[in-house]
Design a protein that fits this description.
The chain has 162 residues and is mainly alpha-helical. The chain has 9 helices and no strands.
Length: 162
C-alpha cells in the first residue's frame, strides 16, 4: 500500500496527459518490476535461477501492472474532460481539429493516439461520441474503468510482457 500510495503517485504524476510511446512505457514497466523485486527481496539472479515470474510477485504483493495505473489515470481524466462544458479549454483542446498539415519533425505520437490506444485496451469504443456518451454517467464510467483491475477479475490481455 505504501508503494502504490507514495512511489507510484510520484512516478505517475501528470500521467493523465502524457503521450506515452512504447519506449517510455517500457521504461516505466522495468522500474515497476525492479521495485516489485526489491519489495519481495528477489534479485534478478533469483528470478532467472528459480524461474520466478514478475506476475507471481505482483500477485504476492497484490499490486497491479503499471499499465493498469497509467490507463486508469488516463481514462479518469478523459471521462472528466468529456463531462466538461464545451466552453472549457481542456474540452476544446480534446475535440479540436487543426486544418493545416503538421510540419516535418513533429512528434510521431500525440495525446489523441495515446488516448485511443488506452480506450482500445480497455475494450471501449475509440470514437469520441461513443465513449464521451458513456462517460457522462460518472459512477458508471468509474465502475467500468475500475473493473479492469487484475484483482479480483483479470483485465483483457494488453499484449505487454510481464
Amino acid at each position: 500500500m505504501v508503494y502504490v500510495t507514495l512511489i507510484e503517485n510520484i512516478l505517475l504524476y501528470g500521467a493523465e496527459c502524457w503521450c506515452l510511446t512504447e519506449d517510455l512505457l517500457s521504461r516505466l514497466r522495468s522500474f515497476h518490476h525492479r521495485c516489485i523485486r526489491v519489495m519481495c527481496g528477489v534479485t534478478r539472479w533469483h528470478t532467472w535461477r528459480h524461474r520466478i515470474r514478475t506476475a507471481e510477485l505482483r500477485k504476492r504483493l497484490r499490486v497491479e501492472n503499471i499499465d493498469f495505473y497509467v490507463n486508469l489515470r488516463m481514462l479518469r481524466w478523459a471521462g472528466h474532460v468529456a463531462r466538461m462544458g464545451h466552453e472549457r479549454l481542456p474540452r476544446r483542446f480534446l475535440t479540436s481539429w487543426v486544418r493545416h498539415p503538421r510540419p516535418h519533425g513533429r512528434p510521431q505520437f500525440t495525446f489523441g493516439h495515446t488516448l485511443n490506444k488506452t480506450l482500445a485496451r480497455a475494450g471501449l469504443p475509440t470514437d469520441f461520441e461513443a465513449w464521451s456518451e458513456m462517460a457522462q454517467d460518472r459512477a458508471a464510467w468509474r465502475a467500468r474503468i475500475c473493473s479492469l483491475a487484475e484483482y479480483p477479475t483479470p483485465p483483457p490481455a494488453s499484449g505487454a510482457a510481464p
